[in-house]
Amino acid sequence: MLPSKSGYAILFIVLGMFFISVNDMVIKRFSGEYPLHQMVFLRSAIGMFFTLILIRLEGGWRILKTDQPGLHALRAVMVFASNMTYFAALAVLPLPDATALFFIAPIMITVLSIPILGERVGPRRWGAVIVGFCGTLIMVRAQGSTRGDISIWIYLLPILAAFFYATMQVLTRKLAKTKASAMAFYIQITFVLFCGISGLIVGNGQFVDSVQHPSLVFLLRAWIVPTAADMSYFVLIGILATGVGYCLSQAYRSAPAATVAPFEYVLLPMSIVWGWVIFADWPGLPVWFGSATIIAAGLYVIWREHKLSSQD
After folding, report:
1. Residue 82: CB partners within 8 Å, gap ≥ 6?
2. Cα separation of 236 and 23, whole Å?
3. Which of the four, 1, 63, 75, 268, has the lowest number of CB atoms within 10 Å?
């Protein structure tokens, strides 16, 4: 039986994955109308309000004080970079495909836990890491050859996002003494700052006419005033952003990264459902096969982790 602390961490990560699945669906839904930095700015500004409520509940302003500002800044930049590269891919890729490619992240977390956290990874788990990367290559090569209308470089964006995300989560474990709401606050304020600056630079759309690729148009489109109906969706993802930041921070600060990471795979069936119901996207055989390979590798990592822990 899992220790209670690990059990709570897994509960938080599953809940966080559900919030992410809804957030990704909404971002993709509006990717043809609003610029990415405007949606993320609105989401984070709204999320900041609810994050401040969590900070109040967890101890007040004093919990924001830290003696590791550099690591917190790096962690916030990593999650910003992860979001922007992943959402840029969502403007073009089907939701299940982008999610499946992003699932190399738990494998990357295992790898990065070695230099950053000093965790030991034996030859069997290294084998699982290699299998996971092979699954990713299967999807990239197969999709790149069958969907000639999409550049293979677009398929690499979710993988790059996964690397940034993995770095962020390993840093979360390293900063485990910080309250989850404080970690979420640092992320939200980074999003507001960076997206606000992006809006000031490109928000009037002066660069969008010089590009044609959907991902670049998504990044450079002019800001517009949201309709009342659309604003309700932005409020929704603002609330979800608070939940994501809190749940993921709580999960990775409460249990070893190798224990928590594989449970992120619940995001894949959630994304498949949203992709099918909302966008009529259904994964092809290469995505199913590559996803199964990555998930099998991740599940082996978690099984091996618990087996080694039981021997200590």
Report:
1. 161, 162, 164, 165, 168
2. 8
3. 1
Give the model's pLDDT for residue 258.
Answer: 66
Taking the C-alpha atoms of residue 281 and residue 288, their distance in angstroms, rounded to an integer, is: 13
What's the confidence (pLDDT) of residue 4? 57
The residue type at 60: G
Non-local (6+) Cβ contacts of 46 within 8 A are 234, 235, 237, 238, 239, 241
Write the single-letter amino acid at 303. Answer: W
Give the chain's residues under pLDDT 70: 1-4, 121, 140-150, 257-258, 298, 301-302, 304-312
Cα–Cα distance between 247 and 265 in angstroms, integer?
A: 15
Contact indicator for 130, 111 with CB cutoff of 8 Å: no
3-state secondary structure the chain: CCCHHHHHHHHHHHHHHHHHHHHHHHHHHCCCCCCHHHHHHHHHHHHHHHHHHHHHHHCCHHHHCCCCHHHHHHHHHHHHHHHHHHHHHHCCCCHHHHHHHHCCHHHHHHHHHHHHHCCCCCHHHHHHHHHHHHHHHHHHHHHHHHCCCCCHHHHHHHHHHHHHHHHHHHHHHHCCCCCHHHHHHHHHHHHHHHHHHHHHHHCCCCCHHHCCCHHHHHHHCCCCCCCHHHHHHHHHHHHHHHHHHHHHHHHHHHCCHHHHHHHHHHHHHHHHHHHHHHHCCCCCHHHHHHHHHHHHHHHHHHHHHHHHHHHC
Residue 102 pLDDT: 87
